[in-house]
Amino acid sequence: MAAVTAAARRIHGPGPAESEWQGSGWFERLDCAPAQTWLARVVRLVVVSPHPDDETLGCGGLMAEATRMGIPVHVVSVTDGEACYADDPAWPATRARHVRRAELDGALSALGVDVSGLVRLDLGDGRVRDREAELEARLAVHLQREDTVLTTWRFDGHPDHEACGRAVRRVAAAIGAHHVEYPVWAWHWIDPAHGDARLRGASGLVLSPGARAAKCRALDAFVSQRARDRGEPILTPRILARFERGIEVLLP
User: Fold this and answer.
1) What per-residue string of b and e applies to 104-117 under the rule 16 or more CB within 10 Å gives b?
2) What average pLDDT does the segment 173-192 reach?
3) If pLDDT is split at 50, 70 and 90, which confidence band does 228 have?
4) Where do the record's region annotations for Disordered lie (predicted)?
5) Helix or strand (DSSP H, E) at 179
């Protein structure tokens, strides 16, 4: 996740508590299946992440499950999340880029993903929408027809997330790959009591205890997002609770 810009006006305040989601009728009616069952037909899993940590937040458990099943997992990191604390002089872009790259490496290792296959596009944190055509062109080089490609939801509320959702959707359609999206910021602004019509067709993947534990270890790797010397960190305990659950949600 990256710092939220003015363009993402829906993302403000503390957002719903995880208890509100767990008690929502929408969540209770979610069609769920074991993650291992969903992965049974996957040949290669490719996760396109706008910023370091989005891949772990949205589908880290699924990635861990896939590696345990021997399915190749590849990650494309679109930006380095270097603008995460753009208003803090203690976090210039050069420092943030270095720290977040190292954190991503640690998180992927915790999930069992081979870091040597990580692709970093460095398109600029907060500027993905302006370089959407370039993103499509570069993704086309790395994606294959037999891939199952996961990326952030095209209505997630953050411009970088939405741009990735649109770009991946177009590239996947062009080559015939299976494309699926995962929400990250949507948990912050959607009303749990009523859900959102655009969530229709969502499915929940139940993680095994081992995959869930691996995801929690991977989340621990993002120290810069969980703690901050001054000011509130991006991943507060309230936000993290939404991603420590034993179910991950995917959208068609």
Assistant:
1) bebbbebbbbeeee
2) 96
3) confident
4) 1-21
5) strand 178-182
Tens of pLDDT, residue by residue over 80-100, are: 999 999 999 999 999 999 999
Please give the DSSP secondary-structure letter assigned to residue 158: S
The residues facing 129 across adjacent strands are none
Q: 58 vs 40, 98, 153, 183, 244, CA distance in Å? A: 20, 22, 10, 6, 10
Which 3 state secondary structure label does DSSP give 198? helix
pLDDT in tens, 70-83: 999 999 999 999 99
Q: Which tokens go with 147?
A: 């891939």
Domains of the chain are 18-250 (3.40.50.10320)
- Tell me which residue has tokens 């939801």: 153
- Angstrom distance (rounded) from CA 221 to CA 53: 9
CA distance 37 to 41: 8
* Per-residue pLDDT tens over the stretch 156-173: 999 999 999 999 999 999
**Which tokens belong to 33?**
């299946």
Which residues fall within 8 angstroms of residue 130, CB to CB, at 6 or more apart? none
* Tokens 């270095």, residue located: 98
Distance from C-alpha of 46 to C-alpha of 142, rounded to nearest angstrom: 9
CA distance 189 to 48: 22
Nearest to 158 by CA among 51, 56, 82, 243: 51
Q: Is the backbone of residue 157 left (phi > 0), alpha (psi -120 to 50) or beta?
A: left
- Hey, CA dihedral for 39, 180, 243, 67, is it positive or negative? positive
Using only C-alpha atoms, the chain has a radius of gyration, in whole angstroms, of 17
